[in-house]
Please model this.
Amino acid sequence: MIYDSEYILDMLNRKLKEEQQIHSEKELLDLLEPRKDEEGNVIADTHLPTEDLLVAFSDLRLKLAEHMKLDDVLFLFGNGASIYAGSQDTRDFKLGDYKTKYKDLSSIIDAVGKLWGIEDQLNALITVRSYYNLVKDGEKEQLVNNLIDEIKGVLIDSFVNSVDYRKLSLHEVFLLKLRTFGCLRRTDIYTLNYDLAFEYSLDKLSIEYRDGFSGFVNRIFDPGTLQGKDKTGLVKIHGSVNWIVEDWKVKEFQPKFKDGKVIIDDTAPVLIYPTSHKLYQTYSTPYSELMRHMLDEMETGKNVVIVLGYKYGDDHINELLLKSLENPNNIFYFFLYNPEERGEFTDQLKRLADSMPNINILTGKVLADFKTFVKYILPATPEKTDQEKAIELLQKVLVGHAGQ
Model:
C-alpha cells in the first residue's frame, strides 16, 4: 500500500468545510507550522485543530498499532530524524565554498561540485587523490587529501555536532509513546546517525538500553550484550561521535555537554563516512557485528520494521532491507520524504508494494516527516482509546452524510 500527500489531504478535507479545503502539500505544510501572534509568540502548535489532525491520521495510527503487537518493533532511522533538533541535511553541503582556500584545485572543485550529494563528491575526490598518487604528483595528492580531511571534519562539526540537545522533544515523545504502548523491551532502534540524540533522550527518561558495549569505567565493544530482550536496543550501524579505538579495541567514552552542544575531544571518532569505501568498512569490527545483529533480527520472527529519515542511498543498508523482505512474517513501513528523488531501490520497493500487502510506503514532506510520525502516526496505546473510538464513529457519520 502506498500513501502519499493526496491521501492525507483527502482525509483532512473530509472534515473541513468547503472554504477551508486544502489543495496542495505546500499549503498543508504551511498550515502545520506553529501559529504565532502579532508579536511572534507561538500560540498554537499548528494552524489546524488537533482533533482534525488526529482524525486524518487515525487509520494509519490504528493500523500501525495492530502491527506493533508483533514479536518485535524495529526502527531504522537516518539523518531526517535529527534535522528538527539542529542537524543539517547533507544535501546542503556546497563544495564550492572551498575554492578560495584551495585555489590550485578550483577546476577540480568546479567539476566535482556538479555531482549530486556529498557522497558522490567525496568519492570523486578520492579518485582524484588516487590519480595524483599514480602520476607521482605528491603535492597535488596531499592538497586533495587535506580537502577530503577538511570535508570530513565539517561533516562532523556542521552536520552532526550542530544538534542542540536541549531541543530533543520529539525524541522524548517518541520514547514515551513506546513506553506507554508497553513495547520498550521488544524495541530495537537502529540508527545511521553519528549524533547522541537517542542516548541523551534515553538517559533523560531513565530508560535502560543495550548498545553493544559493556563495562563501567572502560566501556568496550562487546556484541554479546546486544542479545536479549530485557532492555531497549540501540544499535549505531555507522558508528558514533563518542566511539574511539584504543589499545586495538573499540571503546565508548562519556561525552560532555555545554549549552546544548556535545563536546568531543580531538580523538578521531569511529565512523563510517559517506564514501564508497563504507561498503568495505561494514565487513570489519564493530560494523560487521552490528549489521549481522540487524539482519538476524529482521530475518527471524514476526516484526514490524519502520524505516524513517533515511534517503535509501546506502547500498549495504538497502541490501539488508531487501533480505529482510524475504521474511513473509514482517510488516514494513518505508517513509520516503522526497519521492521525486528516484532511485533503483525505492523504485523496486514501489513495484513490490503492488504485490506484497506487508509493504507500506508513506511518501512526501508531510507523511514522511519525523515530527508528523511522532505526533500523529505513532500510537501511544495498543488498543483504541475513547478518543479514537469517538473519532472512528465520527468518521462513519461523516462518510454516511457524504454518501447521502
